Amino acid sequence: MSDNKVERVLTGTVVSAGRDKTIAVQIERKVRHPIYKKYIKRSTKVHAHDEKNECSMGDTVRVVESKPFSKTKCWALLEVVEKSVSVD
Hints:
Protein name: Small ribosomal subunit protein uS17
Largest sheet: 5 strands, mixed, barrel
CATH architecture: Beta Barrel
Number of strands: 5
Function: One of the primary rRNA binding proteins, it binds specifically to the 5'-end of 16S ribosomal RNA.
Radius of gyration: 15 Å
GO molecular function, one term: rRNA binding
Structural class: mainly beta
Strand order of the largest sheet: 1-2-3-5-4
Mean pLDDT: 92
Shape: globular
Organism: Candidatus Thioglobus autotrophicus
InterPro entries: NA-bd_OB-fold, Ribosomal_uS17, Ribosomal_uS17_bact/chlr
Strand content: over 45%
Distance between the termini: 55 Å
C-alpha cells in the first residue's frame, strides 16, 4: 500500500503577526453566486505556526495543513512568497 496523502497548500496575506510563533493568514477566494451568476469574494482567516518569527504584516505567504499545534492553530508556514514593503 502506498500513502497517497494530499497536502492542502493555501496562499494568503498575513493580517496579524504580533504573537510569538503565530501568524494569522487571510485567504481570499472567488465563488460564483448560484442565482445571480456573479463572482463574489469570500475570505477565511487561519492561524499558522511560524517557527522562526520571520513574517510581518502584509507579507504574502504559503501555508500547509499540519498536525494541530494548539486549539486553533493547525497550519504551518511553508514559505514567504513576497515580503511587504515597510515604510519607516
